[in-house]
User: What shape does this take?
Amino acid sequence: MNDPFLFERNNAAELFIVRHADAIPEEDEIIPSGIYDDLPLSRTGRKQAQALAERLSSLSFDAIYSSPLRRCLETAAPLAERLGMTPIIVERLKEIKLGNVRPLPEDGQDLAALTKALQERQLDIVRIAGETGHWDAIPDSEQSIAFRQRVVQTLDEIVGKHIGQRILAFTHGGVINAYIAEVLGLKKDFFFPAANTSITIVRASLEHRVLYVLNDIGHIMKPA
Assistant: This one.
């Protein structure tokens, strides 16, 4: 290979992969009896999405792709508006389908307890996946190997349409882990905690992929 690190723009697509902004609502934002696997952005998340838009709006992109879930579409919206672009929704960019990690309170009117349970459920998911490196430890979940195959195939198909271009994909922490694990040749399907609105950059051709940036959150870092 004459360009092993894909420095030459014409040989590869430059893929910016962005995790959605925060979508764990505070007590005053939560919707009783809501659909908690497809939450909108929280107040914090909306600020993060704006910060991301400010960070990336000076760059040019040839296409924006997004998972259909609200937290991804709402994260993409401020940047897409600034760029005058419409995200292309891709169903197969959705997060892994998980089993019931932690039951939510039966009393849906206790908003404080519901918020706490959602926060703890998210921590449980990261802890279990982080300890095992895969998703099969959570009963009734999408099979980890099948999830990884879905993610890699989907992003590779997107890349194949955009050789020589720069593109964005708004998606989920599990998706980013699975794809980057494939890029790096790792056996684990989950190996790092992707931060909200983190930017990961991969250059990819039809035969080769190179990781350039992982989990960049400079736009939401607070000064010491």
In short: The two ends are 44 Å apart (CA to CA). The beta strands are 13-19, 63-66, 88-89, 166-171, 199-204, 209-216. The mean pLDDT is 91.
